[in-house]
Amino acid sequence: MQHNRRQFLSATAASAAATLLPGCSSRGSEPHMPVAYELGKPLPWVNWAGNQHCFPKHRPSPSTEAEVVDALRQAPGQVRAVGAGHSFAALVPTDDTLIATDLLSGLVSHDAATLQAELWAGTRLNEVGPLLAGVAQALPNMPDVDHFALGGAIATSVHGTSTRFGSLSSRIVGLTLATPSGELIECSTTQHPEVFHAARVSVGALGIVTRVRLQNDKPFHLTETNRVERTEDILADLDKRFAQHRHFEFMPLPHSDLAATVVTELAQPGDANVGEDDPKALADLRKVFDAVSWMPGASLVYDRLLKIAMGDSASSVRTGPSYQVFPHLRGVRFREMEYAVPADAGAACIREILQTIRDQKIPVCFPLEYRSVDADDIWLSMFSGQAAATISVHQYGDIDPAPYFAAIEPIFWKYQGRPHWGKLHTLDAPRLAALYPKHWQDFQEVRRQLDSQGKMLNPYLKKMLGA
Predict the structure, then answer these.
(1) How many CA atoms within 13 Å lie on the side-chain side of 57?
(2) What is the number of domains present in the chain?
(3) 361 Rama sector, left if φ>0, alpha if ψ -120 to 50, beta otherwise
(4) pLDDT score recorded for residue 20
């Protein structure tokens, strides 16, 4: 049955008409390098999404802390650090000095008694799992993308989903920071605590984090179950679902009453893989939307086709070590905006977003994403002092996301949402300061102490931090 439904969806996609609706239509393949290289000029740097670039004159790649210190001391002009380049926001671009952290990778040390481990900040998250497994440890939660560098992930408060766990930054018990002046500061709640509170989520404005000490758990296995359900059925008992499952998230489909749900629990004896991910699902959704978008009542037709294709489809199940189950394949390039709204406002917020998409006939078919994250005490964490629902809106990488995001972003503001630091938003320093009334100025004071000349600030950060 599931195979037949996939065939139906693919067949419907294959019948896409030549007349395409602007905004959610096939534009052809996007270029691998959207910025032209000019002979004799600096090589361009481009982020994963292809929407940020720069032409750094200097690109050191230190492999030791001493080399990081030297690179910072000697760097002319503005300095930024880069890991995997997965931020959609303009955190990285500089035409002066861009310091890559790729060679700062691997396990530094571990403590079997406390289940703590120290890793180099350039370590990719897809390397962290196997490294920790080798010393009988595991991250208790992970984001569903594991390509990030550890340093970049904590700088932007990357998170998974669960009311029981906070962001990745909340697992940090110590870190080492190389400052713009070339000083190395080891910090924790007892060593340089103000630097620690600022550096756990810093958008890279304080210097370069070189090492991170994480509080981990013992290794464990997970079983993930994926289903397609009615969005309103999910929202009707949303609190219950988050409470009863270790991890829960759902992805509403615009212009449809359907949503994909993902439930992840500790694995039980006998759990086995059932079905498989469909790598063409996002592409097929787009083709189906294009096929009917010219019709009067296109949303109703599209919704009906999806219900025929997926409405009562069987579950698919993945089971295995936690670090293999948490991540999901991201085979389609996209751009993303995400806000964290107070947890009790999440359902109302996403209902309003979905209704706005329908009412304004916004031509988008990329699924939304709704997750939950526990509160923490980190100064600039999106979850500082409050548990939150995170809601993400996406657009395909070859389509300008600005009109869609401009229609949706004011809804997040209405619900006092805080933007994800690594994703697209339009807020400036005064509006961000109002969202962080308790510690915004504390962070600014630490930043000025560590970087009085603003060496780590590119134009985007100057605007965002008001520096």
Answers:
(1) 7
(2) 1
(3) left
(4) 43
CATH number of residue 296's parent domain: 3.40.462.10
Contact status, residue 419 vs residue 380, Cβ threshold 8 Å: no
Pairing, β 208-215 against β 116-120? antiparallel
Question: Which residues, including other chains, have CB under 8 Å from residue 323's CB and lie 6 or more apart?
Answer: 126, 128, 129, 130, 132, 133, 138, 139, 142, 146
- Letter for the amino acid at 179? T
- For 49, half-sphere exposure in the C-beta direction (CA atoms, 13 angstrom radius) is 23
Q: String of b and e for 298-322 (b: at least 16 CB within 10 Å)? A: bbebbbebbeebbbebeebbbbebb
- Within a domain: residue 85? no
pTM over 0.90: yes
Sort strands 97-100 and 79-82 into parallel, antiparallel or unpaired: parallel
Looking at the DSSP bridge assignments, the partners of residue 214 are: 117, 172
Evaluate if residue 23 carries a pLDDT over 90: no
Q: What does the DSSP assignment read for 293-328? A: TTSTTHHHHHHHHHHHHHTTPPPEEEEEEHHHHS--
d(CA 391, CA 405): 12
Say if 346 falls within a structural domain.
yes
